Each structure stands twice: as structure tokens, then as C-alpha cells.
Amino acid sequence: MPRLLSSLSLHRHGINMRRSGLTSLFRTSSSAVQLPSSQINHNTNVRTMATQAKPTLTMENLNPNIKVMEYAVRGPLVIRAGEIEKELEKGVKKPFTEVIKANIGDCHAMGQVPITFIREVLALVTYPKLLEDPSFPDDAKMRAKLILAGCRGSSVGSYTDSPGIEIIRKHAAEYIERRDGIPADWQNIVISAGASDAIKNVLKLLICDVNGKKPGVMVPIPQYPLYSASLAEFNMHQIGYFLDESRNWGLDIAELNRSIQEARKVSNPRAIVVINPGNPTGQVLSRENIEEIIKFAHKEGLFIFADEVYQDNVYAEGSKFFSFKKVLMEMGAPFSNMELASFMSCSKGYMGECGLRGGYAEVLNMEPKVKAMYLKAISAMLCPTVLGQACLDTIMYPPQPGEPSYDNFLKEKNGVLDSLKLRAKMVADAFNSMEGFSCNTVQGAMYAFPNMKLPPKAIEEAKKQNKAPDAFYAFELLENTGICIVPGSGFGQQPGTYHFRTTILPQPEKLKEMLNKFAEFHKKFLQKWC
Amino acid sequence: MPRLLSSLSLHRHGINMRRSGLTSLFRTSSSAVQLPSSQINHNTNVRTMATQAKPTLTMENLNPNIKVMEYAVRGPLVIRAGEIEKELEKGVKKPFTEVIKANIGDCHAMGQVPITFIREVLALVTYPKLLEDPSFPDDAKMRAKLILAGCRGSSVGSYTDSPGIEIIRKHAAEYIERRDGIPADWQNIVISAGASDAIKNVLKLLICDVNGKKPGVMVPIPQYPLYSASLAEFNMHQIGYFLDESRNWGLDIAELNRSIQEARKVSNPRAIVVINPGNPTGQVLSRENIEEIIKFAHKEGLFIFADEVYQDNVYAEGSKFFSFKKVLMEMGAPFSNMELASFMSCSKGYMGECGLRGGYAEVLNMEPKVKAMYLKAISAMLCPTVLGQACLDTIMYPPQPGEPSYDNFLKEKNGVLDSLKLRAKMVADAFNSMEGFSCNTVQGAMYAFPNMKLPPKAIEEAKKQNKAPDAFYAFELLENTGICIVPGSGFGQQPGTYHFRTTILPQPEKLKEMLNKFAEFHKKFLQKWC
């Protein structure tokens, strides 16, 4: 049974580790004169003009939740990588010529080419004059006309309903039906500016202290740090449950029970987050494992957050994606009455359209009055980006057999997924061949999360530098090779273990080069600190 | 001196008035069996499977801040308007054939045609193959190439830095410099998915109770309800200050003093929001008025939120837009050291690209460590939509004299603004000619906010129906004419006065028709209730 690493200590850990250096990395044009605070009386409105020169917003009165939140995927390591890129541009000499950003699942940034059909439809809805251009295929034009017919004034420049354009929500429902073989109600689909937006909008509904206890949300450790960041921002209690590295990062029900029992002492557990396929861990959950989780959530009365943005990214032999909705519905009552939100994104899969910010939540069995409040809450933000919605439409309603774009679409889609499959294996194999590293099979998603044994001397040195040992390793790697990864401490890990997350996204040749460089660095690192 | 209408009582008012009917307007597929709550023990983790059928998320344990928040621009009246549209589609007979949505500043929805240059650039960056198409002008291609060069992997599908693409931030700084004649630092520009996103991201920095007092934010009454909604969501104290209707909705410093003194008893005032040009009130503040406000904010140690999204929408003779930044900088120290966030959007002005979700905050004099926290906080949401950013770029760096698109761009831009100027006058004149109505000059923005005297019998009837009198009027108007406006109570108003907001956006012929219908309805309404 693993030891408990509370969210609080994880946070503390994160802060100590990462805040050093962060604040100095942004310049501003502030020229405020700093006066001793004794000259300022904050509790009176009778003050002379000369006294107000200190900023009114300071680290002392800043939102305390913002102070503690951390988002490692864009943390100090990534900021340093950006600085190094600028230094290289200026001609500073380094032992490498470019930074390889393996820190973030940013497909196009790593050379993946956009799917033609998606971009054709987007160009058509943006600039409808192109509907007369014979070089655009008819199915793309048909999709564009459908989307424009759903836009007020036939323009993507008008606001849509806050949960999105009706026809796109309907296409999403049809997509889900095809995927699961289970009916889907388009009114349960809420389109969003990427999955992050959708997740935060559902999560914030749960902010409610009961009997002086904070609402608690179970998140996997390691986890995608959007969850820890959002829970910190919302002042909710993070209940970490450890994924079982020895079972390829599966969920162990005994561990779920342990973590919720610990958490009930200090919080009111309300929800469980499951990321499947896993980020950063790359596992694909078996149907049996999902059933166990659903039974657990049912027993504990938890709202299920199924983060399923990598549903198209399944590579390993024998692995198959099952949606939580499908399993829950097929289990029948009482499970099929449970509250579930499933999240999808345009940013991952084969399309990788991160920058367009499209996604949705499918929300099941939400109490009607609560759902009305949810829809009211998102209405003040008006609507998700219409071009992000249009992008989502092309994924929910892709070219069909017999349509002119079908063959090319399939070729491009399979090209991306087949290549990712090869790279998933290439990455895990490479790390497994390095001394002291062990890496689970990357069954799905876009990441490997290898375990690394670090030499005690390196750990000592890291502590001297006030860095987590894996962050120390990652900084050394970056400065020596230009490879940017994210240390395991940014996602959480069993105390005393060290990991890192790398994407599998560099194009094959670049990836090979990166893995060679990595192996070379690792050998030298071990020599240096052995 | 106006009487105090506290934000609390405004909220209460709003809730009583608006919540009726809201929850019944959304259907869900929920099939959860409702069990008496006595059968459920929320404080134990030992429960049998059969007992969990009640939803875990209910109105009782929903986020209480979400429960109280209201957003009238998309409130029950607008929901009813949507229902009426569906009824009309189905052939239900009504005294009108279409709904005219004068409730929301949604330009393209009301027939405004997109600016060609903007859409050309967007099509080019979305589908770069079009860079070879000779029918696209060279300046649009040059802009597209600049934007793509700022995108990782030259794709708008990759993530950007969280505050946006560097070259676009630089173009925004240059735009601000041209506007104000004052230097702007591109690192102070934080691009966002529309101004709403930017406003909420700065506002949330101020969430911090001091000595048990909530942070307070001064907002104009009437105000754009994004502010009341966000303050409710963040559990901050709304400090309403009344705009002076008798001075064309200007800001009266005595009223600012009154409202902050009242508010200090129960909250810790930290910021002041000024909307200029005004929404819903249409005023354009004089330079002198802005100076007074800045001096007041300085005296009180307030962070200034300058909502300047209508900066291009100035129509009245003698009115001119001055940015808060320009005035504050030209006032010199100590004012030029004050903290200010100015917000801009792609959704308004002459472009009206609401659906693309582009905007920015220019943040001045923010304490460097605080600014680092601000940038950290937005990083978990990854980045604003890249196509929204690209749209912003076309506005920050429009066609220049001598470039091929210049003449047409200017013609289209001035066409929109000249027409809005005519419509601004047409709307105010029309309402001033109706019995019991008086409407200030629409100096800027996109709205008129007429004052209406309602017959006592109509007010009585409204109370019987548990509606605010102006909401009663607006519902009657909608059901009888199809015209959808927003009652003044959605924005706040002096107690005992009644107003409504209408946009000036219907195209001229449609607007004339709408105003005629409105006048006819109003006459009948007065007859019925006199």
C-alpha cells in the first residue's frame, strides 16, 4: 500500500521546487516608486495624493489561490527553454542548435501536418466567397454551408448559443452514438474552447463547502496538472490516488478506497477524475477496470469526470478504448443513472488542432435545475470560438465513404495514427534500453512517463540547489541537449520515485535524433554523479 | 444625491425577478430516480448500491455563487425569444413573422457584412495553400505570412505562448502608440479569447479577503452584466455607483465618493470599472471627467479597469474617445504610476467579429511579481484561440496607405461606422418622440438606454406576475412584436426608474421597421394600462 502524499504536500513540494526563478522571468514597464508600507494606510479613505505610489495589488493581497497554483507543462523549465531559444537566435553558442519541445502535446508545433479536409472547411466558413472556387471539394463545401446555416447572419463572426451551434451539437451526438452504440442526446453536449474550458466549467459547479469541509476531487497521481491547477484556483481539496506503475498505470480499487478514506477526514469528496487514455502515463484502461471504477464511484456517490481527449490515440496490441459512458450505460441501473461528464478535444487525436480551441463536454444525468445553472454560468462568457466549433464539426462529421474527400482524409488520418504508434514503441524501447530507466508500454495518448533511478549524489546536488531531483535532471538535460521534458514532480509521483514526461510527437527522424542525444546525455550524467 | 441601491439588494431583485421560468427552459435526458433524502447518508462511505439514485450534485450543494449569478443579456427573455423563433419555424401563428434580436451587440447576426481584409487574412492563415492564389491581395498575404511565422510549426493549430503570439502583441503595442501618442510595451499586452476572458482573468487576481472583508469592485449602474456576473461568481462585493442620467450618463465624483464610503463599511474596495464608451448607456466620457475619475481612483488606491471595447464607436458631434492610459500618462506622476488594465475586443468597433473571440488587456504598472502570477494563472488554459489572435492582428495592423487593400478596407470600415452614426441618431430620436420615453444622445457604443414612465396599472400588473415592471414591458413587447430588448433591471437603474437597452444594430430599413412597430406597440400598451 503506497504512502499518502497529500495534495497539500504536493503543492508545497511544487512551490518550493518551481517558484524560484519564475518571477524574475517577466519584465514589466512598472516604474512605481516603492514607499515603505508604514507610510500607507490601507484602511482609510482619507489619504493624501503623495502617499499612493505603492501598487494596490501586491503579493500580500493577491488572490492566495493563484499564488499556490502551479502548471508544470508551462512552468519554469519551459520558460527557460523559451529563453534558450532566444539566446540561440541571437547567436549564443550552445552544445546544440535547437530546442526540442517534448514538454507539451503540441502536434503541429512538432511538424504534424494539418488534415486537409479540416482546413478546407475552416477556410470556406471563414471566407465564403471560396464556396465558388472549384478547387474545393463538394463535401467540404456541404459541411461549410451546414455550419454557416447554423450561424446567425450566416457569419462565423456572430455569437452562437452559449453551449454551441445546434447542428454541431447534433453531429457530436451522432459521433458519440457511432462510437458507443448507445443513444446520445444533443442537448447534453456543451461545446467549449478546448477541453480545459469544459472541465473547469463543470468542476466549478462543485465548489461548495459542507459542514466546514472543502469539496474534494479525486485525481490520479501522476495527473495532468490542469486538475491540480484548477483545484488550487477554486480552493478545492485535491485527493490524489496513485496509479499502479507495476500494472502499467492501471487503477487499483484498494488504492482508491485508501485515498478517499484518508480524504474524508479533511474534505467532502464529490468527484473522481479519470484520464483515459492516460496523461502523462499512456495507459488505456480495460473495460473491467472501468467497471470497477464506476462501482467505486457509485458506492461513494461521486460525480465522474472522464477525460477522454485521447480516445483516438490507442496504439498497443490488445488495447481498446471504452468510453465511460458506454460502460456505465451497459452496466444498467443503478449505474446508468450516475452523473458523468465526458470531455473531448480537437487538440489531440489525429487532428492535433490545439490552437483552434475546440472541445465539448457530454454531461449525463445532471439534475435538470443544476443543468440550467450550468448553462446560465457559461452564458456570461457568451460563446466558445465559432471557428473552434467549426473544427469540432469536421471531426464529429468527417468525410463519409463515397464522398470526394473520404480517401484522402482516411489516408491522412491513418498516416498520423500509424506513425504515432511506431513512435510510441520507439520511445518506450529507447528508454528501456537506458541504464536505470524503466518505461511502461505506451498503450495510448501522446506521452511516455519513464521511471528513473537517480544517483544519490545527483539527488544531494539537487537538494543543494533547492530543486526536486527530477527537475534538476530535466534542467541539466535542457541546458546540455536542448531537449525540454517535464519532471515527474510536475504531475505527482510516489514519494522517492523519479519520472519525467516526454511526448512522442517529434517526427520520426527528429525523434530518433532526440533519443540518441538523450541516451548520450544520460550516460554522461550517470558518469558525472556516480 | 441618489439613494443607495446596494449590490446585494440588486442581486436579490435580480433573482426574484428573473429566476422564475429559467430552470424549466432546459430539458435533459436525466432519468435518475428520486429517492427521499432521508434514505441517503452523505457523511458515510459505507452505503449500499441501491441507495444511490439521487444525483450527487443538487441545487442544495451546487456552488452558491453560481446560483446567484445572473446574466441578463442572455436571460429568460432571450431564452423565450429563442423559443418563439422555434415556434415560428413550426408555423405557429404570431402577430409578427420574425424575432428581432435587439438584445445583444451581435453585429453580423444583424446583417453587418464582415470586413473583406480580415476574412482574407484568416482564410490564408487557416489554409496556407491559398497563399498561391492570385486572387488574394499581397498585403493580406504578407500579414498571413507574418502571423504564420509567429506560429510554431507555421500552423495556427499549434499552441502559442499563453499571452499570445509575440508579433501580434507587438502590433497591438504599435496600435496603442498610434492611438495615444504614448509609448506602449508589447510585454504589457495579454491577448485573450475576447475581452470578457481578459476582464475575468485580471479581476480574479483581486480575490482576497482582508480582515474578514470581501474585496469590493466599483461598477457603474447601469452596467454591462458581465461585471455583476463575474463578481457574483468570484464572491466579490459589487459596489454600484450611479451614472448621472441628467448629465448624459456621465460620472459624478460626489456619487463615487458616496458609494465607496458606504461600501467601506462592508467591503474592502480594490478596483473601479469604467466602461467608455458606455454600455448600456452610450455616453463618451470627456477628458475632464476621466481626469476626475483617475484622481478619485488614486485617492482611494483603486486598480482601474478601463473597458474600452467601443473605442472605435464614437458618433456624436464634439465627442471624442480618450483612453484612460493616455489621460493617466499625460497627468504625470503620481497618476502615471497607477495600475490600469485597458480592455479591447474584436467583437465591437467596425469589425464586429464576436464569434472569433479575440481581444486583449493592456496592463500597466502591475507589480512584477504579481504580473508573473497573472501570467502563470492564464497558462493552465494554454492559449487564446489562434484564429481569434489572427483576427486581432488584422485590426491592430490594418491595411496601410499605398497597400492594395487600403481603399476598400477604408470604404468598408467607414461604411459601417457612418451607418451606425445615422442609426444612433435615428434610435434616440424615435424614442424621444414616444410618449413617456426620454433617451439621451447615443454618443458612442452600440446601444440606447431610454428611460420610460410606466403607467401605475402596468406596474401593479407586473408585481402580480412577480416580474420587474420593465421586464413585464419587455415580455409584452416580445410576445406582441417579436422585438427582443433587455429590461433596465438587468443592468441596474435608480430605484423607481425604468429603462431598457436596445442595440442600434438592425440594418437601417429593418431598424426603421422595428422602431415603427415599437411605437405602435407602445401606444397600445399605454392605452391598455392607462
Automatic annotation (TrEMBL), chains A, B:
Enzyme Commission code: 2.6.1.2
Pathway membership: Amino-acid degradation; L-alanine degradation via transaminase pathway; pyruvate from L-alanine: step 1/1
Among the GO molecular function terms of this UniProt record, one is:
pyridoxal phosphate binding
Does the keyword section mention Transferase? yes
Q: Which UniProt keywords apply?
A: Aminotransferase, Pyridoxal phosphate, Transferase
Under InterPro entries, the record lists: ALAT1/2-like, Aminotransferase_I/II_large, PyrdxlP-dep_Trfase, PyrdxlP-dep_Trfase_major, PyrdxlP-dep_Trfase_small
Q: Which CDD domains match?
A: AAT_like
Q: Which domain of life is it from?
A: Eukaryota
| Cofactor dependency | pyridoxal 5'-phosphate
Q: Which residues form a coiled coil?
A: none
The family database entries (SUPFAM superfamilies) matched by this protein are listed as:
PLP-dependent transferases
Q: What class of enzyme is it?
A: transferase
Describe the reaction catalysed, as an equation: L-alanine + 2-oxoglutarate = pyruvate + L-glutamate
Pfam families in the cross-refs: Aminotran_1_2 (PF00155)
The record places domain Aminotransferase class I/classII large at 153-517
Q: How does it assemble?
A: Homodimer.
- Note the PANTHER family from the entry: ALANINE AMINOTRANSFERASE, ALANINE TRANSAMINASE
Q: Which family does it belong to?
A: Belongs to the class-I pyridoxal-phosphate-dependent aminotransferase family. Alanine aminotransferase subfamily.
Its name, as the record gives it, is: alanine transaminase
